[in-house]
């Protein structure tokens, strides 16, 4: 890890991840709302055109475009905090592993990446679960629905009064199982990144061997970055997506009246909706998380201290982050 202008890169990565989480959430919140509505829909099996049906219903019954931004506050708080915590814990754990082995430059194994990501995910899931409970409840219902929370603070107050502290941790068990998502994603990302670097080096060596002369190491460019981040996210998302459906079902207002626990929720979804029930909302979810992943993975790599303290530079940087990838690996 390097030091930039007196600040550790772990600190810069944490703040940058926080910023990336805010920017991506502002842009992609409507897709998150659409995904949540599909996940908690128990009225019909998964089918093509479900997203369009939900969009029409929200537009017609809940007040137009503003209805697609219901629950924005807990979503911003949750995503920005999650990314900041995740990058902080993930980076610190990797550094600790290298120090324990006596080398700060040692390439970690797939198992190392999995453990580092898993530990970061466990901590992040536990600390942010109360935010996700409120977010799920606000996104799953319109503001005009009976008992719907009017705001984030209203949700906090009502949950504490009616359900106690335990109410903030509904859906925690599937969320903890979902830690494997982050582990699989970052493991795949790191390994794909290393693979692209080796391929580039092999190509350069081949050019040297036929007399083309030495060629400087090529930085991974936009295509490399988009491929590695997209493939790793799609892989992890498809493997672990069912946990998101379970978590959303268990965090709704009436979950305690419908499900007796995780196993009962799984059994009911399987019996009533089939295999497709565990993948409701997958399409909007992939559309939502891929741009968010591009920003959140790339932003911590490029930002400098000068940019961090210059608010307009940070804003401009975040808006254009998906258009460039300058980081050498």
UniProtKB/TrEMBL annotation:
Transport found in the keyword field: yes
Q: Which family does it belong to?
A: Belongs to the mitochondrial carrier (TC 2.A.29) family.
Membrane topology (UniProt):
Multi-pass membrane protein
Question: What organism is recorded for this protein?
Answer: Aspergillus fumigatus (Neosartorya fumigata)
Give the protein's recorded name. Answer: Mitochondrial thiamine pyrophosphate carrier 1
Q: Which UniProt keywords apply?
A: Membrane, Mitochondrion, Mitochondrion inner membrane, Repeat, Transmembrane, Transmembrane helix, Transport
User: Where this protein primarily resides, as one coarse class?
Assistant: mitochondrion
Q: Which PANTHER family match?
A: MITOCHONDRIAL NICOTINAMIDE ADENINE DINUCLEOTIDE TRANSPORTER 1-RELATED-RELATED
Q: What's any one GO cellular component for it?
A: mitochondrial inner membrane
Q: Matching InterPro entries, A to Z?
A: MCP, MCP_dom_sf, MCP_transmembrane, SLC25A32-like
Molecular function, one GO term: FAD transmembrane transporter activity
Compartment(s) of residence:
Mitochondrion inner membrane
Give residue ranges of the Solcar repeats: 8-96, 108-195, 224-306
Q: Is NADP tagged as a keyword?
A: no
Pfam families with a match to the protein in the record:
Mito_carr
